[in-house]
Each structure stands twice: as C-alpha cells, then as structure tokens.
Amino acid sequence: MLNSSLSSSLCLFSQQYVAAYQKQFNHLPLTEVDEQWPSPCIVNSFDEQLNEWQPQVIANPLSFTNVEQALGVELHEDICQYFTTLFSESMPANCEHGELSLLFAWSEDDFVRLQENIIGHILMKQKLKQKITVFFAVTDDDNFLLSVDNNDGSVWVERIGCEPHKKLADSLNEFIKSLTPFIYIEELHKKT
User: Fold this and answer.
1) Residue 42 β-bridge partners
2) Total structural domains within the chain
3) Summary mean pLDDT of the chain
C-alpha cells in the first residue's frame, strides 16, 4: 500500500515552494525554453527564453514494476510513492543539515530516464556489495546525495560509491515535513 501521507507532504512542500518563489519574484518559477523536453509542468511563456512552471500531480499512474523485475529487487514503497506523486523541476530546500535539491521527473519521458538512473545506481550498489539505497536529492557538494535505505525507508546522506554514513530521518515523510523551501537568485533571474 502506498503512503498517502508522503504524497500529501510532497504536495504541501511543492505549494510552499511555489508560494515562496512567487513572494520573492512575483511570478512562478522559471525554466529555460526547450522544445525537445516538454512537460505538463509548463504553465506559460515568460519570455522568448524562459517558461513559467509549477509542480503537477501525476494523473496517470506510473510504476517501477519494470525496474523491480529487471533487478529482481522490490523497491521500498516510499521510493515508489515519492517519484510517482509529482512531475516537477528540482526544488531547492533547507534542512537542519544544509541545502539540498529534491529531484523529480519532469515528464513521463523523464520518468523513463530517472528509472534508468536508478537502475544504474542499484547495479553499482550491488557490484560494490553495499546495501541498496535509492537517491532522491542532491546536495551542493556533487560528491554527496540523499538516499532512502531500501530495507527500512530511512533517509541518509551518502558519498557516491560509498555506504550511507549519516542518518537524517526515520522516513521520507518525516524528512520532507522537516524541509523549508530555499529560494535563491538563479542565473535565470539575472537575465530578466
């Protein structure tokens, strides 16, 4: 059974992120125009180079069944719920340990790419004989990511290629609830 409270926490965080962004800049978040990478998140054109976007609840059910079958692994329900709740650009956030960016699929095509990246991550973990984790966020240091322990759903910091080394929360839902949106002046705003 999927974790509806995790979905609710993700939706609430995304609303808080958009509200904080709008308060800072008086418009929705921006992304560069890319005709080759459409998304249901695109709301409207901001100018010739930028589109406004906002997270969208995924309407058509997505699944990790193909990933699980290919690897012979059952993914923790929170991992599946996290990546099948929203389409979104990455959303910066603060937690008590620092800044991070939550990762999401931008569209159904991007969900396929995300699945491929997760397969690669799990294969690396298996090759290194490490416990299986699945990433869901990156930090401002490219060598570290935030992941979910596939066995118990706890949230950890891990150095790429290494075992997780710092526990942040007992569950993904608990971790998401602890976050606050982080709005910074992006390169995109320097153009406007």
Assistant:
1) 53
2) 1
3) 92
